[in-house]
Each structure stands twice: as C-alpha cells, then as structure tokens.
Design goal:
The structure holds two protein chains of two kinds. In chain A, the strands form two sheets. Chain A has a five-stranded mixed beta sheet with strand order 6-5-9-7-8, with helices on both faces. The radius of gyration of chain A is 22 Å and the shape is globular. In chain A, α13 runs antiparallel to α16. Chain A is built from 17 helices and nine strands. Chain A is an alpha/beta fold. Chain B has two domains: 54 residues, NADH-quinone oxidoreductase subunit E (Arc Repressor Mutant, subunit A); 77 residues, 3-Layer(aba) Sandwich (Glutaredoxin). The relative contact order of chain B is 0.12. The model of chain B has no long low-confidence stretch (mean pLDDT 96). Classes of the chains: A alpha/beta, B alpha+beta. At the A-B interface, β5, β9 and α13 of A face α2, α4 and α5 of B.
C-alpha cells in the first residue's frame, strides 16, 4: 500500500498512480460480477483494519443484492481515526488518495452502491484537500460518474468532515453523525448492512481496509494471502509512538512479531529508556509486556495473549513513565468521549477517572483498587450499549494485573514515585 | 450554502451538522440566535439543534478568540511531555482551558489525539498543524498569529 508513495510526502497525481498500476484493479473488477469481487476479497483473507478484524468480504456479503434489493445503498469510508495513538490512515490519505478512491469504487461496485461517502476527521485538513483533488481527477478520467468505463455502473463520491467526538468512529455512531444527529450508537440488529444510513443498506469500511482492495483484485487473493506472515491476508500498517528512536508507520507483513516491530522498525528505545509494556493497537487495547515480545501481531495471535491487535499502532510505556498516570490519561479521554447514552458508561467512566486522578495525586485510599477492579467487570463486554466502555476497561484491567505494585506504592506512599519531589 | 447541503440529502434535518459548520465558519461561533435560525430553516426544534451543537466538541457555543489553539492531551503526547507545553501555554497566555486572552487573540482548548503521534507533542492553531513541540518553539509559533 505504501510502496508507490513518493519520498517527498506529496500525493500521487492520477497519472503517476496509473503509471504504477493504479486503477487496473477497478478495470478488472468491472468485468466481473459484483459477487465475484466480494468472493475474491473474502478469499484474500482481508480482515477489517479499523480494529475489529472482521472478514471484509463476509461483511459485504450481508448486503441485499439483486433486483429486489433497495436501489439506494451506501459505501462509507470510516476515516475518523480518533483512536488515541493511531496515525496510519493519515499516511494513506495524504500519500496516495487515489489508491483509497479506487478501493471505494471497487467496493461500491461489489455491493452495487451508487454512492460513496468519505467520513473524514476534521483535523485531517491536508487529507481533505488532497482527496477533493483526487475525486475531481477521477471524475475527469471517467472512474467516477455515470456509466464508468462503459460498465453501466454509476458512482458518486462525497466527503463529510466531522466536528469531533470519538463516537463518530463507532460504525453506527458514524451513521448517526452522517444523518446530522448526535453520534449515538444504535442497537444491532438491524445491522447497517441491511439498514444503515437513512435506513438503507450500508457498508462502513476503514481507510486501510479499502486501500487493500485494489491490490487484491488486481493481483489475486492468493498473492494477497501470501504477503502475510500470520493469520489473515496482506500487509499491515504498523506504527509506534512513545519513547522509541524512530517513531512512525511501517508497512510489514501481517503477523510481524512485536519484537521485530519494536527493535528493528521503531529503532528500539531511546537511550536511557527501557521498554516496559505497550498497547498494541490504540488506547482501547490491553497492555502487552516483555513476556509477549514474540507474539505475532495478527488479530488472532494478539487476542490469544489477552489483548487485541486493534489498529496496530503501538504506544510504548517505558520504565520512567508512570503507569498510573498513563492509564489516568486514557480514562480521562474515555470519560470525556462517552456519549452518555447508557448509565454504566456515563457514570462509571468519570468515577474511574476520579479515582485514578486521586491515586496519581497521592490521595488514593484503601479500597480504591477494589472499586477499579469492580468497574472492569461492570463496564466490561456485554454490560454497556456499545464497545466504548469495554475498550476503556482494557488498559485498566491489564494495568491492574501487570502494574499492581505501582498502584499500591502510590496509595501507600501518598505520592507518585515517578514525579520529582 | 445550507440549501446546497440540503439538496444532497433525503431530508432537511440531516443538514443540521453542516448548517452548524457553515454558521461557525462565517461567524466564528454559534449563538442562541443562530441556533433558532438554523432550527427554523431545517424545520426542527431549537432544542434539537442545540443538542447536536453541544454534542460535538468543535462547535463553539461561546465566542472564541481570533485564533483557537487545540493542544493534544492524549496518550502519545502525554508520554513525551505534553504537560510542560500545557503549563507553558497557560502561563504565557494567562488563561486556563476554555479561556480567551483579553485581547481576543487566542482561545486555548484541549483536543484528543490529532493523529500525528510520531511527531508528538502536537497542536493545531486554526487549520495549521504544529508538531514536535517544545517550550522553546511555542513562542515563535504564537508570533505567527496576530
């Protein structure tokens, strides 16, 4: 996905993209039946890159097709990228907007959706302007519009820029936002594939997921599967931030071990710092520690060691950074971003945040850790309306497991031992 | 402009967020009066428009300064020293979160992750992204905004 990109960070023009094989996947897809495209993506083993890792082809296959299906359907790009510590989609959007557009058009064709909507984070100003240029170029080249490349398929593509809130990244919250409402999650079923935006069948796919699609169609599902070093097909954009030598985004085979990612690609820790743990894929994933350095970073392997691959952009905790302060920062974010719809999340997250703040500031009390532990169950999977609160509990529950001594020291000494004075 | 947005959509009320964005673009913030005008135009209640306006963190329901500083307070920036930048900005501008300087030049707000964590700490001023921040750099950056 990143192999075509220019070294100077400027986006590929449509001519440059075409000269490197761009829009060949679309040409091939339009000669196939829509169902064949979906099957190809399924066979390629593409798993949703937004963090859930669900089979993309499978997701598409739930959309009603044929004569009796609604004429209005939507292919929606989730370009909200608001998971703290995640910055992979920005690279794809800024570096090669046509690649994602091609993915949008092919995917829309596969589900026979005449409309594509790109839901973009407000902060991605450069992405927005580059996408707009790319859409215009693609319209002029006949890839977007009526009867594209003589196939009889019509497609228009629009951009919606958001006005903030983490909830917009939740699939159904995003649909609510596109309808002009508060970004509240919706009850499932009905699933968006049958009743999504304005009640019409809708597919919401992550930017990186869609960027894989042209390559699967162009080079075939076996080729795509062969790129991977783990469970599922393709390469993955991994990233690292925190006190590492070369923070950034690296495209590597899916299933690259955490150690290789950290030591080779992120360049190891900054001098004077030691690796303690990392969140493997954004704020809503459980910590992995030195015991997990050899885990393959694919969806299944990371789940087997009690975490989630999530977005694959790791956030590193070093020995000089306070784990209590680290988790407090995360819970502050989640408490602030709760939409307030369901009680456990609305009331529980601010409570968790207050307790962590008091522990960090040296005012922790006996019994605090028990209350925190209780919340990791009470706000866990299945206890709340959407996945925000369970996601918020992931770093907390793993911190209580791996760094319990740190919490206890804070309470006993009535101070944060990581802060001077 | 609002009517143009409505024309793309199956019903008027779906243009609510776009309408708020357009008003804010023109006026800098969204007043009670604007809420009422949007509501009438979209044929929904003022309360509905206000509930949407107050949900999203980038719709301002109070006047803001000429330039809005959005400083990332999320995890990657926190790890590499966001607190120093925050404290420096607060002292230098003499305002707390949500405050506006007396000369109406700056408003200071925290913002979740800006998606540029390999260049943390980061902030946005208006539409400009500033990365790899240090206390020393802040003064130079602020000078660009009159």
């Amino acid at each position: 996905m990143t192999h075509m990109m220019r070294a100077d960070g400027q986006p590929l023009s449509i001519r440059e993209y075409e000269s490197k094989g761009g829009y060949q996947g679309l040409r091939k897809a339009l000669k196939m039946a829509p169902g064949e495209v979906t099957q190809m993506v399924k066979d390629g083993g593409l798993q949703g890159r937004g963090g859930a890792g669900f089979s993309t082809g499978m997701k598409w296959s739930f959309v009603p097709m044929g004569q009796d299906a609604p004429k209005t359907k939507y292919l929606i790009v989730n370009g909200d990228e608001m998971e703290p510590g995640t910055f992979k989609d920005r690279l794809l959007l800024e570096g090669n907007p046509h690649q994602m557009l091609e993915g949008v058009i092919i995917s829309a064709y596969a589900i026979q959706a005449p409309e594509g909507i790109i839901f973009l984070r407000w902060a991605y100003k450069t992405s927005a302007s580059r996408l707009l240029t790319a859409i215009q170029e693609a319209e002029q080249a006949g890839y977007i519009g009526k009867n594209i490349l003589g196939s009889g398929f019509d497609i228009k593509v629009m951009i919606h820029t958001s006005v903030g809130r983490y909830m917009c990244g939740e699939e159904t919250g995003l649909l609510s936002a596109l309808e002009g409402k508060r970004a509240m999650p919706r009850v499932k079923p009905p699933f968006p594939q049958t009743s999504g935006l304005f009640g019409k069948p809708s597919i919401v796919n992550n930017v990186e997921t869609l960027c894989c699609v042209p390559h699967i169609v162009d080079k075939g599902p076996e080729w795509f599967r062969g790129l991977s070093n783990g469970d599922g097909g393709g390469t993955k954009l991994y990233g690292a931030s925190g006190k590492v030598k070369t923070p950034g985004i690296y495209e590597l085979p899916l299933g690259t071990p955490l150690r290789e990612l950290l030591e080779e690609h992120a360049g190891g820790m900054l001098d004077g710092h030691e690796f303690r743990a990392a969140l493997p894929g954004g704020a809503s994933t459980d910590f992995l520690t030195t015991d997990h350095l050899d885990v393959k970073m694919d969806f299944r392997s990371v789940m087997e060691c009690g975490s989630r691959l999530g977005t694959g952009t790791i956030i590193v905790l070093d020995h000089q950074t306070c784990p209590v302060g680290f988790v407090h920062n995360l819970e502050h974010f989640f408490a602030q971003e709760s939409c307030g719809w369901c009680t456990p999340c609305r009331e529980g997250l601010p409570w968790v945040e207050r307790i962590l703040k008091s522990i960090e500031e040296g005012e922790g009390q006996a019994g605090d850790l028990e209350i925190l532990q209780e919340h990791t169950h009470g706000l866990g999977p299945g206890m709340t309306f959407c996945a925000l609160a369970p996601g918020a509990m992931a770093p907390l529950q793993s911190a209580l497991k791996y760094f319990r001594e740190d919490f206890e020291t804070h309470i006993k000494e009535k101070r944060c031992p990581y802060r001077a004075n | 402009m609002i009517n143009l947005e409505i024309s793309h959509l199956p019903h008027k009320s779906a243009a609510c967020i776009e309408a708020l964005k357009i008003v804010q673009q023109e006026r800098g913030w969204v007043s009670d009066e604007s809420i009422k005008l949007i509501a009438d135009h979209l044929e929904i209640s003022s309360e509905e428009v206000d509930s949407v306006a107050t949900f999203y963190n980038l719709i301002f329901r109070k006047p803001v300064g000429r330039h809005v500083i959005l400083l990332c307070d999320s995890i990657s920036c926190w790890v590499v020293g966001y607190e120093k930048i925050r404290d420096h900005l607060k002292v230098k501008l003499g305002i707390d979160w949500g405050g506006t300087t007396e000369d109406d030049r700056f408003t200071l707000l925290p913002i979740p992750c800006l998606g540029t964590c390999d260049h943390a700490p980061a902030m946005m001023i208006d539409s400009d992204l500033h990365r790899d921040l240090s206390v020393e750099k802040i003064d130079e950056i602020l000078k660009q905004y009159k």
